[in-house]
Write a structure and sequence with these properties.
Length: 228
């Protein structure tokens, strides 16, 4: 069957990865979480003391880029997990220490260049669902199906809060809401590949949608695209 490229972009914590992952599983495509890659670089910076009081040690990070090897592997339940230099860092990259610094790392030109090159290589053979901020605009501008997802900041913060709580992690709704708004501000305002809807992307506001509704909607978009 014909294989296509599916790009899912949007604001932070609006359920992009849940819908992208579900769709990929359903249609037998590879799923790539591009945000996890920026999170992995952020984790590397934390581990190697590359943050200063108000920024990043850029020359040191640039020199370290060839030593940052990011891969994904499926766990026993078939879920993809992020590895940094052969170490599974899936849990570590979801915490607030990484979340509060990742958007700063994602503004750095040489980091974006390296991540985009890796993402394009992963999607070389199509049959891929990738989610992020610049997938439909920069990584795969020719993707056959592009979705731009959004929801209100409060709904998104509540979802992230519930997700962390369900995992038994410490979380404060207020600090999550602040983080969601701050990341949107940095992601939309940065100079390189800012977060924006590609002209040919379909807009989805899922504030009032359940996960099954969203899943059905996305599957329908995929089928419509295949039949086009
Ligand atoms: O899932 P969540 O919305 O929390 O974020 P994520 O997809 O894990 O991405 C984390 C951060 O990485 C975003 O806030 C962006 O700053 C950055 N990012 C990016 O700049 N470009 C991408 N393609 C993906 C993520």
């Amino acid at each position: 069957m014909k294989k296509i490229t599916i790009a899912i972009d949007g604001h932070s914590s609006c359920g992009k990865s849940t819908m992208a992952k579900d769709l990929a599983r359903e249609i037998g495509y590879i799923y790539i979480d591009s945000g996890a890659m920026y999170r992995a670089v952020t984790y590397y910076c934390l581990q190697h003391d590359l943050f200063t009081e108000d920024g990043v040690k850029l020359p040191e990070l640039q020199a370290a880029m060839p030593d940052i090897r990011i891969t994904f592997r499926l766990n026993a339940e078939g879920r993809p997990e992020t590895y940094l230099n052969e170490e599974c860092i899936e849990k570590e990259i979801r915490g607030m220490a990484v979340s509060s610094r990742v958007s700063l790392i994602a503004t750095i030109g040489f980091v974006r260049e390296a991540m985009v090159a890796l993402q394009q290589q992963m999607g070389r053979d199509k049959g891929i669902v990738m989610d992020g901020r610049d997938i439909g605009t920069t990584v795969f501008p020719d993707a056959e199906l592009k979705i731009f997802v959004t929801a209100s900041a409060e709904v998104r913060a509540q979802r992230r809060y519930d997700e962390l709580k369900a995992k038994g992690e410490d979380a404060s709704y207020e600090s999550i809401l602040e983080n969601v708004k701050e990341r949107d501000r940095i992601d939309s305002g940065r100079a390189i590949s800012p977060l924006r809807k590609a002209d040919d992307a379909i807009l989805l506001d899922n504030s009032a949608m359940t996960i099954p509704e969203q899943k059905a909607w996305l599957l329908e978009q995929y089928q419509l695209t295949l039949n086009r």
